């Protein structure tokens, strides 16, 4: 009896959630159609409000009499990866570019994507949604509208808008479907370092038992495998970036990244720490756990902090516990590992 009640409650919650997302997206699109361009100088308008003909985006400080136009075909950038893998550093370096705006984690984007994924996986739920007229096409349109509103409105306009919510890339394939011109940056880090960082800094992550290195490494392996597989399937839309190589050779990898994103080079990306808190620069959250680290110049002090901290039985079983280490190019038996030699400038930053 109790089991049946729980099942009914779950079904009710799923239906309410799906209808909520549908109407949020529908309401957002209807609101946009009602906006009068002439009465909103310097405002933010979607393409639909402008007759579908204008595709110019504007950066704060440019012609403020023109509205900022956004739509599903704009060149969005999504940064993701397992938490504690350098996603905040990557977005801060991109944020330093005058044509890019990422901003803080939204937190809601990976959650709404997870809900959509849950609806799709449940055959019974999908059948009920289809019967209610809430088809895949309706949900996709609602998701596009909802996600665009969050990405666009939670910061200032820019020629390239970027979202950094680590686990959003668990839905990389779906995001690539609803945003056809989006590109993705998957941050990859030695799982031993990521797990040690989340445990030592007490970074709460849903489903990760911070009292167990073995459990966290197992969950890391599962999460990075999901994202890496989708990244490879996306081919020319996704660039994997190893955190270790980014901090050892920042200019090389930022040049590679900006070329991939079709964004012109700017030296500011190598000096993100100088633009923190400045207008048009890098805005940091007071509650994100990585903030105290990215205020520093790029350095290598965090690369091998995990060495000697992982229990001996987990170290012994590492190749079995986290097989993705080998697949991603890390030696599961190397303690300490050899990630490479840093650029001279990075060494100077580390000695400060």
Structural overview:
There is one protein chain. Helix content is about 45%, strand content about 10%. The strands form two sheets. Strands 4-5-3-6-7 form a five-stranded parallel β-sheet, sandwiched between helices. Strands 1-2 form a two-stranded parallel sheet. It contains 15 helices and seven strands. The model is unreliable at about 20-40 and about 45-65 (pLDDT under 50). Helix 1 packs across helix 5 (about 135-155). It is α/β, with parallel strands linked by helices and about 350 residues long.
Give me the secondary-structure category: alpha/beta
| Rg, nearest Å | 22 Å
Number of helices: 15
SSE pattern, N- to C-terminal = HEEEHEHHHEHEHHEHHHHHHH
| Biggest β-sheet description | 5 strands, parallel
Helix content: 40-55%
Order of strands in the sheet with most strands: 4-5-3-6-7
Mean pLDDT: 85
What's the overall geometry?
A: globular
How large is the share of residues in beta strands? 5-15%
Low-confidence stretches: 21-42, 47-64
N→C terminal distance: 65 Å
Number of strands: 7
Structural key phrases:
alpha/beta, 15 helices, single chain
Condensed summary:
The chain has 352 residues and is α/β, with parallel strands linked by helices. The chain is 47% helix and 8% strand. The termini are far apart.
Question: What's the arrangement of secondary structure elements?
Answer:
Blueprint: H1 2-33, E1 44-46, E2 68-70, E3 77-80, H2 87-95, E4 100-101, H3 108-121, H4 123-131, H5 136-153, E5 160-164, H6 172-178, E6 183-188, H7 191-200, H8 213-234, E7 238-242, H9 243-248, H10 250-261, H11 291-294, H12 312-316, H13 318-321, H14 324-327, H15 344-351
Parallel strand pairs: 1-2, 3-5, 3-6, 4-5, 6-7
